Amino acid sequence: MAPSRSSRARLRRALLVGLVLLSAGLLARRLLRPDRAPRAGADAREEEPEPVIVRTAPVVRTTGAGGGLLGINEGISLPGKVGARLLAGDSPLERRVGMVRSLGARLVRANSHAWPNLAYSSWKGSFVDADRYMRTVGDAGFDVVLVIGPWPGTRTALYTDRYVPDDLDGYARWVENLVERYDGDGADDMPGLARPVLAWEVDNEPDQHHLVAPRGARERGEAPLGELELGGDPGEFDPSAERAPFQTPAEYATVLLATSAAIRRADPDARILSAGMYRPAMPAGRQYLADVLAVPGVRDAITGLSLHAYASSDNLSAVQRTMRTARALAPELPVWITETSVPSEGPQGWVDEAWQARMVAGIVGAFLADGADRVFWHSLVDAPNTREGPTGYATNSLFRGVTEGTRVRYELKPAGEVFRRLAAHLDAVDPATLAEVPAEGGRLLETDRGWLAFDGAPALPPEARTVEDLMTGEVTLDADRATAPAWVTR
What we know:
Distance between the termini: 61 Å
Oligomer: single chain
Strand order of the largest sheet: 5-4-3-2-1-8-7-6
Strand content: 15-25%
Mean pLDDT: 82
Helix content: 25-40%
Radius of gyration: 24 Å
Number of helices: 13
Order of helices and strands: HEHHEHEHEHHHEHHEHEHEEEEHEEEEEE
Low-confidence stretches: 1-58, 82-90, 224-239, 386-390
Largest sheet: 8 strands, parallel
Number of strands: 17
């Protein structure tokens, strides 16, 4: 018996629904592009399972007014204890200017714990060091992000047992005078100021310092058991655990609001960044940032988020989790990645200088693809290693230090070569054109000047003409694929 007209109609509807669902599934697979699975032995703290990013808000990008896309964290800074002593004659300061320039970076960031020591508690009542710094970076053509705050922006608990300064009004006046001197508005500026400060960042890594007890707490019996030691990894710390109250989100918000108000009294149009959060990709850092942003007035007090992202895993999951935090908590704010890097030595089997070099393009490309405004590599130079094996961030830099007798010579690492080639290409792009495009086999960032293959071996668009290997500089014509890291021209 032939099927009835209603049966045929039901069959057609069922087939149509099935085709729609199949097409939607295939499209979703192309759009989501999950990261590569980590190799065996990857650090479990860097590999906590997370869903793939689904962008629910448009990219908020404000790049365009100065500085380019890539910077070096503490590129022109010097260690605080020896900075003043080294500033005579042929100093490391001028040598560092040449090294940063050779990389093609046009942005530098100065933390408040290193020379010129722009922390209120370190202030000596003179602008001499700050003027020297601003004259050096300005004459070199660099734009600068200055970190300021009441205390040196590292290991704050070594300096004080209370985060909010007793003389908050005096601190605010100091901030206002500092901004007025370097805002470039022609009123009370530093004599000969070549370039104003690009952005002011209010303190550094409060979410890390929050996890330690303040100075003297142990003696008073206030430090909880299991306290995270200075320099430890907040990813290992339970954000709900009891601990001595120090640099809490509410206290940081108090300082942030006072600092922002002082900055805007001097320069109403200033860029103001939150403190660089040490580990926004981990639960403790996410919760700290969420609590800060929940304080009334904080979102209006800043013009962007400053976030940090360090990793040693053989994928880009740290980037993904960092940007997910930003988009979930403050989708309206631009994101500046003011510190990020990976080591060139470590216990993981894949960590070496070649891997670090590939990850330079991978990290930069992934952050730009997900909407970050600027990306600062940490940092410029690896100091000569005087201990057995690398420690901390000792090998995360773009140059290596080599001791020759009583002198130190710096050599460009493979990571520096990739950074230099990448910076040369990105320097000419229009930031408004940055967008990731679907690519089978890898990830591809499109610009108005070409494409950056930053992960895997993506298939190339038909109009692609040349492929430059960013590791070696070799160029291939009319390739169908590009193995990351590579720059592809039209």
